[in-house]
## 1
Amino acid sequence: DAMVIQNPRYQVTQFGKPVTLSCSQTLNHNVMYWYQQKSSQAPKLLFHYYDKDFNNEADTPDNFQSRRPNTSFCFLDIRSPGLGDAAMYLCATSSGNGPYEQYFGPGTRLTVT
Amino acid sequence: GQSLEQPSEVTAVEGAIVQINCTYQTSGFYGLSWYQQHDGGAPTFLSYNALDGLEETGRFSSFLSRSDSYGYLLLQELQMKDSASYFCAVLGSGGYQKVTFGTGTKLQVIP
């Protein structure tokens, strides 16, 4: 009955080697978010989509890109991962209307070697 | 910009009541949410205040005062499983559907 699914749960990549993280949702929600969370810190918003409308945070590095090919799927591409990009990456969704609630996936823990 | 400040750590006794505060500086928003996150887990939604006042959901209550730029989460009848990090978050400040999280409070419940 998982509603927000992230794959893989754990990802190891080499310094500079591109990596793609994926997120899918069964809630048919309009809004999808990507967050980066480092140890003992708050989630930091990287991007969000309202339908196909893409919103990039001003301080999100150019190294991070995102795609949302349809309502259900969203991808986070890290073009050249550095050691500082090691973190938990969280995907979340919301309906975009009514009482506000975000539904989070379990996260992908990225290790950069 | 937006900033939401929370105490970094709070310790409370099992069965007691604890209040976690969130003070913010932000230029307008739709509402204030609260999330719980256990170590190694994802955040889970607890409550949302669109209007000033108190919202109650079981053992958890949340309060918002826009005039005081302040909100809080109240946890009653604390249980050991409530040991987790708690985050406030504002919706819609700086962009429609944008969410900004507070600094987070680590709650430790002791016997």
## 2
Amino acid sequence: DADVTQTPRNRITKTGKRIMLECSQTKGHDRMYWYRQDPGLGLRLIYYSFDVKDINKGEISDGYSVSRQAQAKFSLSLESAIPNQTALYFCATSDPVRPYNEQFFGPGTRLTVL
Amino acid sequence: QQQVKQSPQSLIVQKGGISIINCAYENTAFDYFPWYQQFPGKGPALLIAIRPDVSEKKEGRFTISFNKSAKQFSLHIMDSQPGDSATYFCAASKETSGSRLTFGEGTQLTVNP
């Protein structure tokens, strides 16, 4: 089945460390997104990319950077992790021909910054 | 600021009851109003969605009610089942935003047997 995968699924790191979260998809979608989920705050968009040469900031991009290595791969980096970046991170993809701007989410990465 | 506000934050319903989750939005330019369902350990998945030119959409036990003048929409789950226990997110999107979604805060629904 075409899918969205994220690695690692869980990560514990220390303040100040650089960390990369990876997303791969076999759906053939051009559009990819990174969100973070926090209790009581819902899902907030960090960065998004509509094709390999297109990168856009979302509503909470400070402290994060991304790389779109190929159509199928979109990585999120925390250059110097801090405790308030502890959250559940989701990658998603979409195809503009689908109705309702439907997005397909990966299983998430739980990140803890000590 | 939260452009889509969702309530309640948590909801407990007995099996067979009706679950109701409400959302309000600010931006009248939104074109689509989807609901996403998230089970523990999984990513959210589209459940049902509506456009603002209709007031109601029903798919099985799930219904969206939409009130354009009040800028509100709600999800009704009829005959709620324990398998419906999940977190539900409302969202809003603009056709011109290129698939960007603005999510509400989420509602954790528990359906007791």
